[in-house]
Design brief:
Blueprint: H1 3-9, E1 23-31, H2 36-39, H3 45-53, E2 55-60, H4 71-80, H5 84-87, H6 105-112, E3 118-122, H7 125-131, E4 138-141, H8 145-158, E5 163-168, H9 170-178, H10 183-204, E6 212-219, H11 235-238, E7 239-245, E8 253-255, H12 263-270, E9 316-317, E10 325-327, E11 343-345, H13 347-351, E12 369-373, H14 374-378, E13 388-393, E14 397-398, E15 404-414, E16 419-427, E17 436-441, E18 451-460, E19 472-481, E20 486-495, E21 506-509, E22 513-515, E23 519-525, E24 532-538, E25 542-548, E26 555-560, E27 568-575, E28 581-589, E29 597-606, E30 611-621, E31 630-636, E32 639-640, E33 652-654, H15 675-689, H16 697-707
Parallel strand pairs: 1-5, 1-6, 2-8, 3-4, 3-5, 22-28, 30-31, 30-32
Antiparallel strand pairs: 2-7, 6-7, 9-11, 10-13, 11-12, 12-20, 13-19, 14-19, 15-18, 15-20, 16-17, 16-19, 21-23, 23-26, 24-25, 24-27, 27-28, 29-30, 31-33
Helix pairs in contact: 8-10, 9-10
Length: about 700
């Protein structure tokens, strides 16, 4: 049996089994009023198990004037994925909600995937009547947390909901009654944990659980003061959390850049629902959050130096990230060390430097961000009493040749005149371009933040005098103020669309063949704007001149082919500055003769026994005609006689012995160095003409002797 036959007879492997994709499902459980710092120390094994198996992230809520730390604002942010300045819920009365523009995430699921089953079960009435809209398939209000838990378990066990939101309210009640430092508050947290364990257990006991991909999230809308109550800006009230377990998160993940506004986008992403930029969400799917250069500074953060109210908080540095620089050349001495010029901070450090001055509104920054704060710098002893003036400069961003660049950054700017702030774009030195303004901010006004958003710019790059784009840019963030307010920036991103694919550089010529000494027009396309090219004739390079491409990369130039160029195939070449060449074939033909062209007569030598005279209209190349006897030819034609015998057109000849010649009409004979060859050629031509002259061997021998 041949090897080939043996191979074909071998058993084949069974086809690989492809696991069917699991159905994405989500469960978000909100524990109203749960203070994270107390929760972390409480006996809450179900919540801790979720933490160990997935993600833990803490962050701060905004405070007044954006919104107080109340349930209406907190749950609306969790449901919609935007902060209160967008959803406009700033109290528990829901007097002016903007849910039409920013609906809850379950409503977005129903619009994008109506086949999915959505469910809300909440103890606090507004959860199922207001925060989550009527598009949700089933909205249920529980009598208390035990009833809410039972109804949720019933739906999970007997039904098939895809996306579920559950609200537990009684931890908040305990906080109001006895405060977050009380035993009753910790007991309420433990009870909520037991209810979460039952709900998660109902999920895991579903018959189809193995084929389901569950994302489970636990969060809170706000915290509580130690003595009870919320709504203020204390750290216990503002601190909240996102705990999540799902296929997206490795076990034990801890992050500093995730906020409650990220829950809605994360659920949508888990369900495979594409985010639409028109939604203008503040939150991001957690897996889409990209750390920036400032975040890399977290290991270098320090404790307070001059800020007495921040003792015990590690959260600032004046060391810029790699590639970034801070220009403090115009900064006076004195003032707060932590706020001298641009420095880098966490929200815990920055917002708690002094409460009630809008620093708590900086909710769109993540993790570590850059701060210029003339107010806090001047508010410690010794006061500077002079102008804060500092510039933060980004690394150099290399450009790809596209005509525009996309620039974005978080900007939280509070103004209390006089102060000023702006961003300038500077370019690589070789471009010779001067810095240009990207944006300026108001120089006066009230403390209210006139700018608190992610700034987006599609910036059209300038060109230099030759029409070329710069090779790189930097951004310069400059802030100055006299005991005024602050400016925060974060998440600086610079990107470009794909560079246009240039047409391949090519040249063409006006005609494929040129007479030596003549001119031709060379055209080119696909070169760089302003590129200088050397035009040459090859193979041995002969300079023909230079040309500069226009702004569109094209050119057209007349060149003269040297008169002495040998006839034949050549190449016309455009040579680039880097030595590369773009070429096209060019045929050169010889120029017409100018020495003996025209009408005239020619007398060629004398024969051994006689002479030869030729006259006619044409071109004659002279020589010596050595032939016996005499011959006379006249007519029209071209005779290139460099030999010793010739025959005229339309003529006759007589030999030395008086022999009669022949008449040839309309033919011209080109002479040869060999008389015999000339005689034979002449005979052939005469025979073709029908003249009937025969050249014998004797005549040939005479011709050879005469030539000798």
């Amino acid at each position: 049996m041949s090897a080939g036959t043996a191979a074909s007879a071998a058993p084949t492997d069974p086809p690989a089994q492809t696991a069917a994709p699991r159905t994405p499902k989500t469960l978000v459980i909100g524990v109203d009023g749960a203070s994270y710092d107390v929760l972390a120390q409480a006996e809450t094994p179900a919540i801790h198990a979720l933490q160990q198996g997935g993600l833990t992230a803490t962050s701060n809520l905004p405070a007044s004037p954006m919104a107080p730390t109340v349930s209406g604002a907190g749950w609306s942010t969790i449901a919609t994925g935007v902060w209160p300045d967008k959803h406009r819920v700033t109290d528990n009365n829901f007097t002016n909600p903007n849910y039409a523009q920013f609906p809850d995430y379950l409503t977005r699921i129903e619009r994008a995937a109506p086949q999915r089953s959505t469910l809300v079960v909440g103890t606090w009435g507004p959860i199922s009547t207001t925060v989550f809209g009527s598009a949700v398939d089933e909205r249920i209000q529980g009598k208390d947390d035990a009833d809410t838990t039972a109804k949720t378990i019933d739906r999970l066990s007997k039904g098939n909901p895809d996306d579920v939101f559950v609200h537990l309210d009684e931890v908040d009640g305990a906080g109001h009654s006895t405060g977050s430092s009380s035993a009753a508050y910790r007991t309420a947290l433990q009870t909520a944990d037991q209810q979460i364990a039952k709900i998660v257990g109902a999920v895991e006991q579903r018959p189809g659980y193995a084929n389901e991909d569950w994302l489970i999230v636990v969060t809170a809308d706000h915290g509580h003061t130690p003595t009870g109550g919320h709504g203020g800006a204390s750290r216990l009230e503002r601190k909240t959390f996102v705990i999540a377990k799902g296929s997206e998160f490795p076990a034990g993940t801890v992050r500093d850049d995730v906020k409650i506004a990220d829950i809605a986008p994360t659920v949508l992403a888990h369900d495979g629902i594409a985010r639409d930029s028109a939604w203008e969400l503040d939150g991001e799917a957690v897996t889409d959050i990209v750390p920036d250069a400032f975040d890399a500074l977290r290991p270098k953060l320090r404790g307070a130096v001059d800020e007495k109210g921040l003792v015990g908080i590690t959260g600032w540095t004046n060391e810029a990230p790699e590639g970034w620089t801070v220009d403090n050349s115009k900064m006076p001495t004195g003032g707060s060390t932590e706020f001298r010029g641009w420095t880098f901070m966490t929200d815990d450090f920055f917002s708690n430097a002094e409460l009630g001055q809008h620093r708590e509104n900086n909710v769109r920054s993540r993790n570590v961000f850059a701060v210029a704060d003339s107010d806090e710098w001047d508010d410690v002893s010794p006061k500077s009493g002079r102008n804060f003036d500092s510039t933060l400069v980004t690394p150099e961003y290399t450009l790809n040749g596209a005509a525009t660049v996309d620039i974005s950054f978080v900007s939280d700017y509070a103004v209390d005149d006089p102060q000023g702030a702006g961003v300038r774009v500077s370019f690589d030195e070789a471009s010779g371009l001067q810095p240009q303004k990207l944006v300026d901010y108001p120089a006066n006004g009230t403390r209210a933040n006139p700018v608190n958003q992610v700034e987006h710019f599609s910036y059209e790059l300038p060109r230099d005098a030759k029409g070329q784009l710069p090779k790189s840019i930097r951004l310069n963030f400059s802030y100055s103020g006299i005991n005024s307010a602050f400016w925060v920036i974060d998440q600086v991103r610079v990107s470009q669309p794909d560079a246009p694919t240039p047409d391949p550089a090519a040249i063409s010529v006006s005609a494929p063949s040129v007479v030596a000494g003549g001119t031709a027009t060379v055209s080119g396309t696909g070169f760089e704007a302003g590129e200088r090219l050397a035009l040459e004739l090859h193979s041995t390079p002969v300079p023909l001149g230079t040309v500069t491409a226009g702004t569109d990369g094209s050119f057209s130039q007349a060149v003269t082919i040297p008169a002495g160029t040998a006839a034949g195939q050549h190449a016309l070449v455009a040579k680039r500055a880097d030595g590369s060449e773009v070429s096209i074939p060019l045929s050169v033909t010889a120029a017409p003769s100018t020495g003996s062209d025209g009408t005239g007569s020619s007398t060629a030598g004398s024969g051994a026994n006689g002479g030869s005279t030729a006259s006619g209209n044409g071109s004659t190349a002279g020589g010596t005609s050595a032939a016996s006897g005499a011959s006379t030819a006249s007519g029209s034609g071209t005779a290139a006689s460099t030999g010793t015998a010739g025959a005229g057109a339309n003529g006759s000849g007589s030999g030395a012995n008086g022999g009669t010649g022949a008449t040839v009409d309309g033919l011209a004979v080109t002479g040869a160095e060999d008389p015999a060859a000339a005689a034979i050629l002449a005979g052939s031509l005469l025979a073709l003409a029908g003249a009937g002259v025969a050249l014998g061997a004797r005549s040939v021998r005479r011709a050879r002797r005469a030539a000798a």
